[in-house]
Amino acid sequence: MSEDKPRRSEATRAAILMAARERFAKDGYERATIRSIAADAGIDPAMVMRYYGNKERLFAAAAEFDLRLPDLSAIPQAEWGERLIAHFLWRWENDETMMALLRAGVTNEAAAERMRTIFAAQVGPTLFKVADDPATVPTRAGLLASQILGFALCRYILGLPPVVDISAEEAIRWIGPTLQRYLIG
Amino acid sequence: MSEDKPRRSEATRAAILMAARERFAKDGYERATIRSIAADAGIDPAMVMRYYGNKERLFAAAAEFDLRLPDLSAIPQAEWGERLIAHFLWRWENDETMMALLRAGVTNEAAAERMRTIFAAQVGPTLFKVADDPATVPTRAGLLASQILGFALCRYILGLPPVVDISAEEAIRWIGPTLQRYLIG
DNA sequence: GTCTATAATTCGATAGAC
DNA sequence: GTCTATCGAATTATAGAC
Prior knowledge:
Two copies of one chain form a homodimer. The first copy, chain A, is mostly helical. Chain A is built from ten helices and no strands. Chains A and B meet through α1, α6, α7, α8 and α9 of A and α1, α6, α7, α8 and α9 of B. The structure holds a DNA duplex.
């Protein structure tokens, strides 16, 4: 008598979503097929359609997420750059939704629009809260994104050997100061 | 009597290659179809197959190119960063092969391998020629690539509004010093 | 050299039985 | 709620006529 409506379906929904994130992260939007996602989840492809309607809505559900940006006002200003790159390194290596979004956003306009929305809704406000000159915030946020996404692109997607080989400590030492200058330079 | 063998075919080959670059740049590898490329070139899809064998070899032919990196030894060291970002901005806006490679490299392993090869063959040697400590060159080249590709990604592919709105002069002022530090910092 | 016709797959999506 | 069967469209690639 504890559960009412979603009798046995929530587990299936969750399995679909997890498999979808994996496939979108690995193959991008066009090569990730509903059939392969269903196979990974151990269910019938028709179930994916039943629960999510079509491929586009499935991606929208799988790509919903939060950057979990730290509150910069609680961090010494001198550490902002290093803390941010460290945060994103951890985030990229522990949530494949990041890679799903980037891989899909490069060839799918809806996914690119999703990335622009996340950027505007999460990065901008984080910087506005601690900005001296609000007028420069969009540019600074854009430069920040360019370095962070570029590093992730080279390291996790293109696999450029020297970028893959950089240790987390090295990455923080090299990229921290770059972000620092973009934020308060 | 001047031309012998390639009677009327070279113009067709060139038209296919130009159309292929446009389509791969705009749609990425999987969504760019041989049919659409042939239609753009005003010829039959079967001709594309005849000349290039298959889609993979067509992409390989279309993605052959040269970064045209300047010789840093002929430039004052203090200007390296600004000159490099200015060079890449010009390159990105005047050769869609750059975008074809990046868009395709994100979802196609062969294209990613091509990018790694171009990086190793062109960026590395350019820096080695002027390096104080050769041991640090690969890391420096990788960091350079991460910022340049990240800026291009945000500006030309994802279309993040603040990055699109940055003027060429602003981009040089902001990113030049970053590259400078990656090169000689 | 060029194009028609089509083979062989594969995909997203639907209808309907159980 | 789950799965079988299948449709209709699109793709790469091939065979062969002209």
